[in-house]
Amino acid sequence: MEIVQIGTVHSPYTELGQIPGCAVDRMEEVAVVEVFQEYSDGLQDLEGFSHVMLIVHMHKAEEEKLRVLPPIDDQVRGVFATRSPLRPNHLGVSVVELLKVEGRNLMVKGIDFLDGTPLIDIKPFTSYDLQTPIRIGWLEGKTRQGKGPR
Amino acid sequence: MEIVQIGTVHSPYTELGQIPGCAVDRMEEVAVVEVFQEYSDGLQDLEGFSHVMLIVHMHKAEEEKLRVLPPIDDQVRGVFATRSPLRPNHLGVSVVELLKVEGRNLMVKGIDFLDGTPLIDIKPFTSYDLQTPIRIGWLEGKTRQGKGPR
């Protein structure tokens, strides 16, 4: 199926190597998510939410792999048990803090996408996304206070 | 860009009207998420996670609207401030409880997708997706204990 770009991520990261692997390291970076004019009417009422889910196309991922070696691990893992960009379809999802909506630009905190990444969708983040205590499988002990990396 | 289907959701809901609007109403329903053979190697290590994020194509949504009337509201809202399937690209994301991985089938709890919905991606759900208390904008007071609907 065909997917269209609805906007662009403007982030401080211009190279893959600059993206912090751990969420805790990127908490303070502020990025701008630009929504194209033709979709800006859909942003109404978004500002009341403290967090939004961004869906993007990780356009710099050229390869596709079903087993990957995560940067914080020494074992190869199934790609669906990671957030690696090398996954089929190269879609990325990040939950970020929404600081402000200025016209058709969102100011957000905690992004881990490259500058220029195509935006595909925005959704409000609601608490039903996390109702019960969670287990984090192979990531256990590899993250700081359960803060997961890619 | 072109997106491929990697599997299929087999859920108890065969019509749109059967899908519970509120997460709390669908907590107990069990569904099977089938991953196509060619992608099944990517499922390794997934079972350790208690929750996964499913990305799907909400294929029954034919219209595209930037302003929608949510089923639990009496005001029209920007589509990006809702989880309406009428959004551009018709992508859906649900965080579900992963009960079991059997071969290339995932048994999950808490799904709100129609039977036959094309699966696009699976990601592990990690606690960094929710680090700080959240505000839920126009949904405040419209949901039970902050459990958000579509």
Could you explain how this protein is built, in words?
- Two copies of one chain form a homodimer.
- Chain A has a single domain, classed as YaeB-like (Elongation Factor Tu (Ef-tu), domain 3, Beta Barrel), CATH 2.40.30.70.
- Helix content of chain A is 0%, strand content 30%.
- The first copy, chain A, is built from no helices and eight strands.
- Chain A has strands at residues 7-10, 30-35, 51-57, 67-68, 77-78, 91-102, 105-109, 118-124.
- Chain A has a six-stranded antiparallel β-barrel with strand order 1-2-7-6-3-8. A two-stranded antiparallel ribbon of chain A has the order 4-5.
- The two termini of chain A are 26 Å apart.
- Chains A and B meet through strand 3, strand 5, strand 6 and strand 8 of A and strand 3, strand 5, strand 6 and strand 8 of B.
